[in-house]
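Worked example

This section walks through a single chain of length 488. The input is the sequence exactly as stored; nothing has been trimmed or padded.
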Amino acid sequence: MNAMRSGVLGLVSCLAIATANAHAQDANRETRQTRIGELTFESGYPSDESVQKLYDEMDFQRACQAYLWGIPAVGLYEWRKAHFDVFGAKSGQMLSYLDFEEKLGILTPNYTTPYIATFIDLKESGPMVIELPAGLMAGMILDHWQRVIADLGVVGPDAGRGGKYLILPPGHEMVEADGYYVYQSPSRFVLGGVRLLGDDKEKAIRELIPGIRTYSWSKAGTGEPVPVRRAGDKKWSQMPPRGMDYWESLNDIIQTEAVEDRDRFVMAQLRFLGIEKDKPFEPDARQKEILEQAAIVGEAMAKANTSDKRVEPPFWEGTNWKHALVVSVDQRTPYYDQLDERAAWFYEAVVVSKAMLTQTPGVGQRYIAAYKDADGHWLDGGASYRLRVPADPPVEQFWSVTAYDEGTRQMVVTEQGRPDLSSRKEDIVKNSDGSIDVYFGPEAPQGHEANWVQTEPGKGWFTYFRFYAPTEAFFDKSWALPDFEKLD
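Given that input, the structure is written out below as tokens.
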């Protein structure tokens, strides 16, 4: 009997100890609900499962931000690949993009403006010269992050009188060269280009393009000048690719260009995603899954950041019009670099220059964008709209309004074959008060065919209203555009 009692007491004691231990373990284990799900902690430390979840989330967040960070470089890289691989151009060879088909691959180009552009591999070519004739044109030389190295043409040092621009590779000794404007690039690859701005497009093409040329330079002399040639109507796109192709492009850029001090923290984050300078890009299954998802979410962030800009108030109070171009030429402010601003512009566009940010009446260009109608709804390719352009638009040269596809950020492609309307259109119809009604929709309103731009049902679109040589009424906002009015 005593033995049985002793055994029972022993069992009770063991159960008590086990219960106490369990309570102690429970006391040392905590569960927290967070926006990334449930996290558990043991003695204050995250459990093995939570550690993995946290690292996955860290890498996913970093990949989404790296997507935004890489947009300007990846967009320019895709055009560079087309320059060499699709068009078969040499380093420094200028190509002209004159018609609708040639310009289809460019993000948000102007339908009416001729473009001349080249990519230069300064490692391959050494110092290179871009020579311009006198004339009405504006352009820029950009590094691979699309920062301005030099402005060209009417807003550049030649002020439209023509000039020779000598571009030195990174690390090259600075030189003094009589008759040249000398600049040093911080990157191996650069873009150089101009747009022709004269009233007579065909005359500008005929008279100015033959004087645009490029050639190599050294202290011993210059190379054979290379003239401009047509790009040709080939299918291409500079739109940043989707999925893993985006990260492949970003990795190629990282491997070919120097890492700047401002980007070292980003590089530290990318290495846990398999992207590291001087190492092959071979992501494992976990990294690949994170990168694929981040490409989707990163682009969604880019769309929100672009089409519903929180960095920019409406240009005209009470409207949905905002600056399209919200980044400065050096992408810097006194206290930070413009991460969101540059992503907002370069997600849907390409290149920047002082001329495009002009504050001087009668000089340069300004672009104002709309993505929504007067009721705050996204512009829909299946609906019809009217935009009333008030009389006396504030421009010394011309204005244009162009429709772009939401998905590609390129000119809309329809049976009409013309994605814009401009003050240069000869048969444009004015109202009795001098205003002009521009119609956008899948079908032309009866009697308004001359003032109509076709859109495609089932696709969203947005628009840029461009002011070439804007006048004082643009800057003081005494002239204003109303919102798009939905007609049906």
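What to look for: The domain at 308-488 is CATH 2.60.120.600 (Jelly Rolls).
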